[in-house]
Design a protein that fits this description.
Its EC number is 4.1.2.50. The protein has 3 helices and 7 strands, in the order E-E-H-E-E-H-E-H-E-E. It is an alpha+beta fold and about 160 residues long. It folds into 2 domains: about 1-35, no CATH class; about 40-155, Tetrahydropterin Synthase, Chain A (2-Layer Sandwich), CATH 3.30.479. The protein has a 5-stranded mixed beta sheet with strand order 5-3-4-6-7. A hairpin with a 2-residue loop joins strand 6 and strand 7. Helix 2 packs across helix 3 (about 115-135). About 20% of the residues are buried.
């Protein structure tokens, strides 16, 4: 690649795919590679928890897999999604809240049924709230998928009304 522009690191400079010439500014090339793209980042976490569907459901355990999908147009100077580590930590912290717990004893499941649908929605809301508080202007949460087992999952998405 060869970069053309007046100043090293100039975001207005253009990058071409022509080999040879002087060594380009790596930051300039990185910015050109990422320009105009949207990144969709999927992060998974795992936890085991038990629940019972009221009024007469038996207590049982699931090995849950939760996946949060984030979108952003921003990458850092190394080409990683800006805030990757932070959003990974947010999801892992949320999953740890439920690990080895009886969901029926945790808020809001003392009031609402601890279904996979409700658990996915609560995880979505909690991660979204922390993301907005801790990383304003960072990646945006677009969906949470929760698997109760390898063949059954539910996905909740930002946007509200069903189509």
């Amino acid at each position: 690649m060869r970069a053309t522009g007046d100043r090293p690191g100039d975001p207005e400079a253009k990058v071409s795919v022509i080999e040879g010439g002087p060594a380009p500014d790596p930051l300039l090339v990185q910015r050109a590679v990422a320009a105009g793209l949207r990144y969709r980042l999927a992060i998974d976490s795992f936890f085991g928890a038990s629940h019972a569907i009221r009024p007469n459901g038996e207590k049982h355990t699931h090995s849950y897999r939760v996946q949060a999908v984030f979108v952003t147009e921003r990458v850092d100077d190394e080409g990683m999604v800006a805030g990757f580590r932070e959003v990974k930590n947010l999801l892992e912290a949320e999953a740890k809240r439920y690990a080895n717990r009886f969901l029926n004893e945790m808020h809001p499941f003392t009031v609402v049924q601890p279904t996979g649908e409700n658990l996915a929605a609560v995880i979505f809301r909690n991660v979204e709230t922390r993301l907005l508080e801790e990383m304003p202007g960072g990646p945006r949460l677009v969906s949470v998928t929760l698997w109760e087992n390898p063949t059954i999952s539910v996905t909740v998405e930002a946007g509200g009304d069903a189509a």
